[in-house]
Amino acid sequence: MPVKSIQVNGEYIMDEGLAADSQINYNDAIDYWTGVPASVDGVLGGFGEQTAVPKADIVGSSTFLRKLQTRMTCPDGVEKLTIDMGAGIGRITRDLLWKVSDKCDLLEPVKPFVAQMNNELVGVKNRGKLGDIYDIGMQEWECDANKVGKYWLVWCQWCVGQLPDEELVKFWERCRTALIGNGIGTLIVKENIAPDDDIFDETDSSVTRSDAKFRELFIKAGFKLIASDIQKGLPKELYPVRMYCLKPNN
């Protein structure tokens, strides 16, 4: 689920009698993404390195993290372990996450994307920062027993629209238990934002959620919102993209 162009009425085919998220089909999504080129242009829906989107995205995320430095301090001797959820070909780990982390795990269910990580993440691996790669979906992921309570950062970007609301809450609950406790671990969510009601896109079988829906689901999953910001520098024909910083509410 990449950046997406704003759609006019009728460009999305959907049953108005059904909740948007109830129309998500995992198999349809995997079939779609398996047929997409395993490249930056492919994973970003045609807004690849020939456009301003990839650079603007990384700059925006980096700026957001800098603002949060005092809220993400890690005690001496504690590993900054990160997991990049729905990582695609590993673009965000390659261009950003390794720079702020000691080790980066990645999760991605689309096999051609996982295979491409071998090329994209050579530099990360050579620096000793490449962790485990999980070739499964978010709905299947369970934190490894030896990593429960060990993640400093869980990064979810342009991926959670592939999960129905109920499954997304369960996924974030598992993320919560994976994070380091005592307010140290952080969940970052960066996603397209629908202007009003949630919108189902049958192309990749995903949902674009509203800001209000995200905030509702964060609470249900046991998270409190620490900060939020809008991504700047994206083409006007795209849906707004919002970043959220969250901490477990305990």
UniProtKB/TrEMBL annotation:
Residues where S-adenosyl-L-methionine binds: G86, R91, M138, Q139, Q157
Protein's GO biological process: cytoplasmic translation; methylation
UniProt catalytic activity: N-terminal L-seryl-L-prolyl-L-lysyl-[protein] + 3 S-adenosyl-L-methionine = N-terminal N,N,N-trimethyl-L-seryl-L-prolyl-L-lysyl-[protein] + 3 S-adenosyl-L-homocysteine + 3 H(+); N-terminal L-prolyl-L-prolyl-L-lysyl-[protein] + 2 S-adenosyl-L-methionine = N-terminal N,N-dimethyl-L-prolyl-L-prolyl-L-lysyl-[protein] + 2 S-adenosyl-L-homocysteine + 2 H(+); N-terminal L-alanyl-L-prolyl-L-lysyl-[protein] + 3 S-adenosyl-L-methionine = N-terminal N,N,N-trimethyl-L-alanyl-L-prolyl-L-lysyl-[protein] + 3 S-adenosyl-L-homocysteine + 3 H(+)
EC numbers on record: 2.1.1.244
Broad class of enzyme this protein falls into: transferase
GO molecular function, one term: N-terminal protein N-methyltransferase activity
Statement: the UniProt record of this protein carries the keyword ATP-binding: no
The entry's keywords: Methyltransferase, S-adenosyl-L-methionine, Transferase
Keyword Transmembrane helix on entry: no
One GO CC term, this protein: cytosol
Entries under Pfam families matching the protein: Methyltransf_PK
InterPro entries for this protein: MeTrfase_NTM1, SAM-dependent_MTases_sf
Family stated for the protein in its record: Belongs to the methyltransferase superfamily. NTM1 family.
Protein name, as recorded: Alpha N-terminal protein methyltransferase 1
Organism of derivation: Debaryomyces hansenii (strain ATCC 36239 / CBS 767 / BCRC 21394 / JCM 1990 / NBRC 0083 / IGC 2968) (Yeast)
